[in-house]
Amino acid sequence: MKILDAHTHLSGSETGETAKDIIACMDACDVDISFVYAPLLNVHSWELSDEHLQDIRLHNDYCSDLCSSYTDRLYGFCVLNPVPSLAGGSLERAVTLMTAEVRRCYHDLGLRGVKMVPTHWYPNAPELVPLYHEIAHLGMYVVFHAGIFMDGQQGSYCRPTYFEGIRQVPKLKVQLAHLGWPWVDEAIAVLNMESNIHGPDPANWQFRADVSFGPPDDWQLSSWQRAVDSLPPTALIYGSDLFWPTPPEEYQEKYLYPQRGLFEVSVTNGHITSEGSPTRKQMREQVFFQNALNHWNSAVHKPQRPQAAKEKITTSRARQSHRQHTGR
Fold this sequence. Notes:
This protein is an alpha/beta fold. It has helices spanning about 20-30, 55-65, 90-105, 130-140, 185-190, 195-200, 215-230, 250-270, 280-300, and strands at about 5-10, 35, 75-80, 115, 140-145, 175, 205-210, 235, 240-245.
């Protein structure tokens, strides 16, 4: 079975042979493609200032450099954050800065993916629409964090219904992470509107959702169950939400096998398709590979061309895990 992991992070702690190490892990776990996000900033509650703009750019350079050796396996994503504090408190000026950065990432770095985490800005704010138009015009694929955020203070910006404003830009292709947990039902409602708005062909839909772990243990199966019971199988995407580097055994035991198990149990419990049937096999291949790739191809006009850096890039302010403490 082919696997596309649509949600992985660079930690900035990778060294020397990092890209080879990632590929080695992917090969050992039969993962064909990974969406690789530039390192997040390790800043308390994402309280950014203009001094962090250079870090954002460096992290995007870092991602491009790492992905440049394996362009058919590692799909690079820049990280954009139009937080007003980057521009003296002005959301409009922050959007202008990030519009310039996404152009640089596309033209100079060769990246075709964008990761955004709404922090101190709402994704349905009118000021964001020009940035969305530019991303769609360039032909880039966007992953938004949806649901409670890792710092425990930004989740209120990430409720699934706030992403409905993206429909003002019909050509923008979006992946909502974590199925919006704890607002799983709300995320399902947003995704279920796709066929009403864009018709029955999934190629025309704007939204997919990844099922990377967000819910705590007791909620994982019920979240999967609601999703497979209520959404078409073309709407869901596998993602691990890991931080590289990760050894193969950890990848399998902590991410891939649990998600496969949750998929199989929820499909069986929902009486959606029987074990061993061609329909079950097709659905599994859609969720774990084809849906993300199809969505990417519908967004991206030209192949990615990530660029190798001319000198070593340091990322001293990179977040290295979900549980990293800032000391503040």
